Amino acid sequence: MTSPAKLSIAVVGPGAIGGTVAAWLSHSPLVSSVTLCARTPLDRLVVEAPDGRLIEASPRVVTDPAEITAPVDWVLVATKAYDVAAASRWLAPLVGPNTHVAVLQNGVEHVERFAPFVARERIVPVVVDIPAERSAPGRIQHRRDGTIVVPAGEAGETFVALFAGSVIDASTTGDLTTVAWTKLSLNCAGAVNALTGLPGGVVREAGVAALMRAMVRECVLVGRAEGADLGDHIPDWVVERAETSPPDSVNSLLGDRLAGRSMEWDARNGVIARLGAVHGIAAPLNGMAATLLSTME
Question: Rounded to an integer, what distance in angstroms lies between the CA atom of residue 108 and that of residue 127?
Fold first, then answer.
């Protein structure tokens, strides 16, 4: 019995998520090579795993699409959701006749964002929940094992197999819509932190938990209209997670605001108001959050 052919991987955007994934994949027995597509050079990847181990890797790093000489089997896009135009510059040299493009981003519009640049059937939307923070280029703290969920099917099974040797729990699902909207329910409430400039403990301030519940309730109603199977318990579940998180925890939306970077206000909140309008469902709280966060930029 012959062993399956090893796969070549390119990761576009070696931030906290992209860098963590690239480091683990560099040690996968199913991977022949990992290429990092970055804005600036870095010497290597050093990821502190949840159990304290250091996962180190020295993948090839390129900073210009012109440096790509051949397509790869898989392109993993791990940029911010608003950075699609920049990420798309890498696709032409990386995508060949058999390449799949896995989109590891926030929100529920993974396929729609990249459909202008690559055939829809090549796109694999990925709902990723990997708590990780980058302290410097190539230096990442992977705080908790995390999960990756992709649609069921041959491409999804191949993608999941790549993470078999890592601490990341990768799986397939027949209902990615529900998985994506469940995560969006968590993410949309994080706008409160970015708007107030305060970490996780703000949920304990008067009225904040009720505000978060109302924001999540809007998300649930729009998600259901989009076909997601979301229960009435979701708003309370989101608030409970916020209340039991460390009070000094900083979500990525707040982290971007504090660092003066662009924020994913559209992928986290604007999309709820936009798609709500399509279905005739009002989502004023998420619309307000998106508007205010956009003006802060």
Answer: 9
Counting Cα atoms < 13 Å in the Cβ hemisphere of 231 gives: 5
Please tell me the total count of domains within the chain: 2
Residues 152 and 52 in one domain: yes
> What range defines the domain where residue 280 resides?
178-296
**The residue count for the chain:** 297
Whether pLDDT at 12 is above 70: yes
Give per-residue pLDDT as tens, 198-243: 999 999 999 999 999 999 999 999 999 999 999 999 999 999 999 9
* pLDDT level of residue 245 (50, 70, 90 thresholds): confident
**pTM summary value:** 0.93
Q: What is the CATH number of the domain that holds 272?
A: 1.10.1040.10
Q: Which residues form the catalytic set?
A: 183
Q: Is residue 81 within 8 Å of residue 103, measured between CB atoms?
A: no
Residue 39 pairs in a beta bridge with: none
Amino acid of residue 109: E
